[in-house]
Amino acid sequence: MPQTGHFILHSNVMPPVTAGAYELVTEQVDLPFGVEPEHTHVQIAAPRYTMPTDQILSSFPPANAEGAFGDRLPQVVLKRRTLPWERNPAGQVQPSETPWLALVVVAEGEAQLSTATPVKDCVTAGTALLDPDDKDVEQGLYLAVTETVVKKIFPCKDDLPLLAHVREVDVNDTELANGDDDGWLAVVLANRLPVFDDANQKSVRYMACLVNLEGQLEALPKPTPPVANFEFVLAQDWRVLASVDPRGGPDVQVLGNAQLGNVVLPAAGVQAKPAARAALAKAGAAAAQPVVAIDGAAKMTQPSVGKQWSSATQQVAAVALDPDAKRLVRDTMAQGFRFPIEAFALEKVLRFPVLAHWSFTTNEGATFEKLMQGLDVGLLGSVAEPPPNTPAADARPEVVQTGHIGLGHRTRRGDPVRAWYRGPCVPFPTARDSTSKDQPLALAHSADQLRRVIPDGREDLALAAAFEIGRLLALSQLSVVSALLRFRGEQFGAGRVREVLAQLMPFVLPGLKDERVDMGRFVALQVLGVLANNTDRMIGPRRPVADPGRPLRVSGDLDQVIATGLGFDLASLRKRADAVGLLSALDQTNAPLALKPGQAPNEKLVVAMLQAALQGELQRTLGVAAPKVAGAVIRGARGRATAPDALDALLAGASAEDDEDDEDTP
Amino acid sequence: MKAFINADLAIQAALSAATDYADIVTDRDPDDGEHVVPGELRRFLARLRLLHGVPFSYLVPDANLLPIESIRFFYIDRAWTDALVQGALSVGTISSADRTQLEAVYPHIRAEVDEAERTIRQPRGEALLKAGSGTITGFILRSRAVSGWPNLHVRAYSRDVVADDALTTAAESDPSRMKVLRMERLAPAVLLVLFDGVPAVVHIEEPRQGIQFGVRIDPDSPANQRRVKVRDCDNGNPVPPENAFTATNAVDVPFRPNAPGVIDMATLRARLAAKAPHSGGTLEPNEYALQMLRFPFRQVFGDPDNQTESKRFYALDQFKAKVALTTWKSTVATKLAKVDS
Fold it and tell me: Which residues does chain A have within 8 Å of residue B269's beta carbon, measured at their own beta carbons?
């Protein structure tokens, strides 16, 4: 697995076999008797007419988005890495490096997206499919496009392998692989940039369709010599059909291109000549007006194209709120792609099964770089100097260096005057409080308190306007008004309790002046203060940092004591030491052992010895702690032969509160 | 009667009254701590401070102050926003007792709303910053870039420590980064951003919506032509010069005649293969995808005297292939051979 933040691109991941029904035949040979061959049937399933939603991880541009997508190729990311190669578009059994999926981007008016149709009708009539019975759904969608449009916008056969690849990402990096299980994703790119209509400065709505190319590779366009630039003209514009009654009447269905009033349909299969294009543009303009309907009597059933344009995004967003959203959103996004092209086109109309589709709008032709570099940078509240010789001086706002702007103002008496105003956004840092720190904060209770007259005689209404809009914004929300009133009521109640308390409590109650009102904290601080000031009285005298240890009582010669303790003869050791030196003498002397190594101790003996030792230690400790000589006056302890320890000092301090000068010098 | 009230009873009464008192005047918010001002009110006032709901004509009183395609930086006038809050507080102060009481509580309200300003916008995973009031600055961007590129990234730094073309950024609570107090599209093409402090440098970035493939518009060529910058096939680095289209580092995108925006992929591959270093004369589909990768751009606003910022527009397409493609090819080949056998 690649590192986080990295990914690996692979050309393709081929499945060992393509999808379909297989039969494994097992035969036994060279046996003296005949054996029937065994037939095992295996079905390898793969999507064919619809893409399961869990297989689509993401799409770019996002569905129903508006933005500047003109220099990015639309793409769809699929979960299973082998998906684009699981069928052979040429109709053979062997896997092929040419993917059977293609992402086709059509502009509004170029193609027709069908409603749910039985899958056998979802492909162009007469197309030979490998196994027509292999279908994942009963009904699917198809894209109906004329041969001209296929020639113009569908990818060539040679382009197909380049338009699909596999990406391997770190599966934990959710930005790249949300919902994927193994971190391998298949990506299908479109071959068409969803460009902006630069000529008319209009946004263009596109639909991206993931289509199945099985059996129709031959219909794809042949490579043509490329050109260096493009021109925004729709491959074919069937949008005029929007103003035609979709039912149309039997004549239209039978006779094809019928008399449609002043509507001119695209000349099928013929390149649009300049004159024809002009007629088309005229037809587009006329389409906004009511067109004479075919039967001459019925009213138009669909809104004009212009209306569909502006509201397509809002309609999708509104439909998404419906409980039946999943179906409706898809359906509404297809709006504008439902023109009954098949009923009107004179040339051959091809059908491609659509596995997934979504629409988006390109509303910007410039690049981010160009826009950002072209920005006019400045501070708010400053206006660029007009170029000289500009007569329209009155068109410029009256802005001064402080950022104030002169605006018309009608006083309460009705006089039209000019007043100064400045918004909250100013071109330089300003002071917050005009009053000094000692004074209470200035608080205005009405807007009039904030009106200022500046030396030039005009009023400065900036703060007064702010006060008024703040008041109106608060009043506009009932919840805020009620919260304010409740807050105020609580504060009044609290004030009354405080008055009662002031009578009862011996403390000085905190005011609202400097610190936050918090009775619990106040009491805690008071208690802490009292404790800190009278530690001896409230807590007790301090203990010394370290207690002095118990003095060792050694009587007599230290060497003798050690030798006795270890159980060897000091005199003989000394004699020996004179001869060979102390260290070797010690080395040669064996200390007698009570137990041999490995021998179990005599329990009775050991217990008796331990008891005796414990008793002796207890007696000694008791003798120190409660000496018999000490009478009723504990202070006398200081005069004893044994030095007083910390406990003595503590006891002495407790008995005499005034005696606290030499506690720490025992 | 007095005989029945002893000292014990009095202190009991005082204690319970004190507890009640402290309870009443304190607003306990499990997320936000204890305050005098109730949470809903505090948050409403803090939102007011950040100019939520204030009509746009109050912010920009004349259209000439914010022309088309412009960005305007500003400081927030605290006196103005205080007047806004005072106006909101004045609702329902009828008697002079109301006003006296409001005057007494106002310093607390102001201090607590100062603190609450930073809690209005809390991105997930960011630490909550707490402090008193400071300078608030910001900008209003009126541009087609706002409508064409929804979800722009805006970042401000108090010190210019992040390299202008760095791929990553610091967390919003990082000391060198300024917290964004508010970022909102007021209109389809108008973006308002407020920062908690005075930034030294501001970055505006194209949205990063996953990995994208695409072409570039050369600023010097006509609007209906496109070019693709060439990358080194071995490591994915763009061929220098970074910020210009030359004959060696870019190819023209071939389009199908009479079809708007349809790219002739096969020809483009041949052109890229001829120009990309280490291509070996041909491009596999994955190598082709590498060439077509597009990364977001970043615009840096800062001190123009700072030499490192003289180049103010950066392509964030530092693309690092950690393993050479040839190595990967052989690895994949051996793996596939194992699968086949």
Answer: 162
Percent helix, strand, coil in chain A, to 5, is: 30, 15, 50
Question: For A190-231, how does the pLDDT look when each residue is reduced to its tens digit (9 = 90+)?
Answer: 999 888 887 788 888 899 999 999 888 888 888 888 888 777
| Residue tagged 């967390």 (tokens) | B171
Maximal C-alpha separation, chain A: 145
Q: Is A102 exposed, middle or buried (0-12, 13-18, 19+ CB in 10 A)?
A: buried
CA quadruple A527, A529, A534, A539: dihedral positive or negative? Answer: positive
Pairing of strands B227-229, B70-76: unpaired
- Euclidean distance between CA atoms B116 and B119, whole angstroms: 5
DSSP assignment letter at A125 = T
Measured distance CA(A111)–CA(B246) in Å, rounded:
39
Domain ranges for chain B, please list them. 212-295
Tens of pLDDT along chain B (341 residues)? Answer: 445 666 666 666 666 666 666 666 666 666 666 677 888 898 899 999 999 999 999 999 888 888 888 999 999 999 999 999 999 999 988 888 888 888 888 888 888 888 888 888 877 667 777 777 788 999 999 988 888 777 788 888 887 766 665 656 666 667 778 888 899 889 888 999 999 888 888 888 877 666 778 888 877 777 778 888 888 887 777 787 776 788 888 888 888 887 778 888 888 888 888 888 887 778 888 888 888 887 777 788 877 655 444 345 555 544 444 556 677 778 778 888 877 66
Residues of A numbered 442-481 whose beta carbons fall under 8 angstroms of chain B's beta carbons: which are they?
443-447, 450, 462-475, 477, 479-481
DSSP lists the bridge partners of residue A417 as: A409
State the SS3 of A476-517: CCHHHHHHHHHHHHHHHHHHHHHHHHHHHCCCCCCCCCCCCC
Kindly tell me the burial class for residue A350, based on how many C-beta atoms sit within 10 Å of its own C-beta (0-12, 13-18, 19 or more).
buried
Stated pTM of the model: 0.61
- Judge whether B202 is closer than 8 Å to chain A, CB to CB: no
Q: Residue written as tokens 């009828």? A: B94
* Whole-angstrom distance, CA of residue A230 vs CA of residue B224: 6
Tally: H helices and E strands in chain B: 9, 15
Q: What DSSP character marks residue A394? A: G
CA distance B49 to chain A (A): 10
Query: What per-residue confidence (pLDDT) applies to A633?
Result: 45
How far apart, in whole angstroms, are the C-alpha atoms of residue B184 and residue B39? 23
**CA A37 → CA A25, A27, A40, A42, A617, distances in Å?**
6, 5, 10, 16, 100
Sign of CA dihedral B184, B187, B191, B194: negative
* Cα–Cα distance measured from residue A123 to residue A136, given in angstroms and rounded to the nearest whole number: 15
Contact assignment for B17 to A380 by CB distance below 8 Å: no
Phi/psi of residue A55, each to 5°?
-85, -10
* Nearest-angstrom CA–CA distance, A194 and A153: 11
Question: Six-digit token pair at A332?
Answer: 């509404």
Backbone φ/ψ region at B128: left (φ over 0), alpha (ψ -120 to 50), beta: beta
ipTM of predicted assembly, 2 dp = 0.77
Which H or E run contains A378? strand A376-379
The verdict on A527 touching B (C-beta cutoff 8 Å) is no
Q: SS3 of B53, please?
A: coil
Q: How far is CA B247 from CA B200, B239, B241, B288, in A?
A: 38, 11, 11, 19
Structure token digits, residue B114: 């100062």
Smallest CA-to-CA distance from A491 within B37, B40, B88 is with B37
Q: Most distant CA pair in chain B: distance in Å?
A: 111
Query: Is residue A385 within 8 angstroms of chain B, CB to CB?
Result: no
DSSP label at residue A387 = P
